[in-house]
Amino acid sequence: MEFVDYYRILGIEKSATEKDIKTAFRKLARKFHPDLNPNDKDAKRNFQQINEANEVLSDPEKRKKYDEYGKDWQHADEFERSKQYQQQSSDTRGQRFSGSRSDDDFSDFFEAMFGGAAGAGRSRQVKYRGEDYNAGLQLELIDAYKTHKQTLTVNGKKIRITIPAGIENGQTIKIPGHGGQGINGGPNGDLYIQFSIANHPYIRRLGDNLYMTADLNFYTAVLGGEITINTLNGKVKLTVKPETQNGSKVKLKGQGFPVYRKEGQFGDLYVTWDIKIPTNLTEKQKGLFTELSQT
Fold it and tell me: Which of 93, 94, 131, 126 minimizes the C-alpha distance to 108?
């Protein structure tokens, strides 16, 4: 497997703090989000790399393994077990052999654990980890708004998974142990699911914030009043200020998208007013507008 430098992808130093990682991810996610770059064929791939880097570096345990083992970080647990086995074997053979194992011997042992040819001649059966599986799942925006369960069929086997609220378009999550079956009692592989979230008819998502345009009749825009809009979380009543201008925006704090794996935290909803000019006016109404225009 080719080494992928997650720090370079996010444009941060190896000493970056959790806050640095979060800031870098959000900045790049906004820049390379596929919805904002429909004509950039590389946007989706870049977004996936950014998401993968964030998934690893924002998790302290995964980051520790990545920093120590590089491209083999996902096999860190097996690697540690192999070192323990080597130590135990060395202790029991202490009087029978002189010297110690070389780094090359240890590398052969590690390779044998994961399917290399170095272990072919050993009398002990080598355990092999199962193959990782990859699957895709398409959601509507409203589906990604709330935590829910879905049943998938992977290689003829039904798997029930929980999809956390706030999942991103293009994001991949890992379901441990649901990949291919291990060999000789080895651990199963993992299942990686990549999510594709369809565009909403009138609500646009950007990170944790939502954006929409709402129609506003001319009279309410001039005189002020109330209007009800439909959001992903149901109907919301808004107060319209008198003399509201076309294209002006209002911010509804906490009415945006749920923050991924942050229970009770939401982004904001931004509503842009689209003022509709009245049509089919009566002569009397036209006269009133003429009157107003002359004052």
Answer: 126
